[in-house]
Design goal:
The structure is a single chain. By secondary structure, this protein is mainly beta. Strands 1, 2, 4, 5, 6, 7, 11 and 14 form an eight-stranded antiparallel sheet that branches. It has a six-stranded antiparallel sheet with strand order 10-9-8-3-12-13, with no helix packed on it. The two termini are 13 Å apart.
């Protein structure tokens, strides 16, 4: 069983932002468990529970996270924990497999509207139709949960299954200030980044 996290040392604003990345999970047998894209205030050493905790549940202090579950015993799908209260499950099924293929993810947080829109696609350029999934979460107030800034990163968890999870072409842009960063991460066996301000936690 493993749990891991990687964090950028520089905190980012919790106002409006757009993030995108490509996720790929592969396993010789039953995959497990999944990954979370996280904003949190605990710092760059933060890491949560292994297995179904995705390295996210159990992180101390305020946090929010976009969660991807690939374990078949739970519902393979996604969930956005908008206030750090997630205890497990609650995943929304997407209309295509999340393993052994690239999965294209875009997260758009509109602070003024209080929404987080998630688009998950099996095709690049977020092509619509049967192979794309979009959901908008409402009453999202990241600043009230986290304060004006937070640490940004990725966590992962595995249980008895051996799964390679990769996050590539991670791009993040914020309105205040506008910034763009590309990070490549491989989990859980190793973290590989090309950003100068990334740190491994756990």
């Amino acid at each position: 069983n493993t749990a891991a996290g990687t964090w950028c040392n520089r905190q980012v604003p919790t106002g409006s932002f757009r993030a995108s990345f490509i996720y790929r999970a592969s396993a010789p047998l039953n995959p497990g468990d999944g990954l979370a894209v996280v904003l949190q205030e605990a710092g760059t050493g933060a890491v949560g529970d292994d297995g179904a905790g995705l390295g996210y549940r159990g992180i101390s202090g305020a946090k929010v996270g976009f969660l991807i579950n690939v374990f078949q015993d739970n519902t393979p799908g996604v969930f956005f924990d908008k206030d750090g209260s997630w205890g497990g499950g609650q995943f929304q099924k997407v209309p295509f497999p999340l393993t052994d293929r690239p999965v294209y993810v875009t997260l758009v947080h509109a602070a003024l509207a209080g929404t987080k829109t998630v688009t998950v696609s099996a095709q690049p350029q977020l092509v619509g139709g049967a192979r794309a999934f979009t959901v908008t979460y409402r009453d999202v107030n990241l600043a009230s949960v986290l304060g004006p800034t937070a640490f940004r990163g990725v966590t992962s968890g595995t249980g008895n299954s051996v799964t390679t999870q990769q996050v590539s072409k991670f791009a993040f842009s914020s309105d205040d200030p506008l910034e763009e960063e590309h990070v490549t991460v491989t989990t859980p066996a190793a973290w590989v980044t090309n950003s100068s301000d990334a740190a491994r936690g756990g």
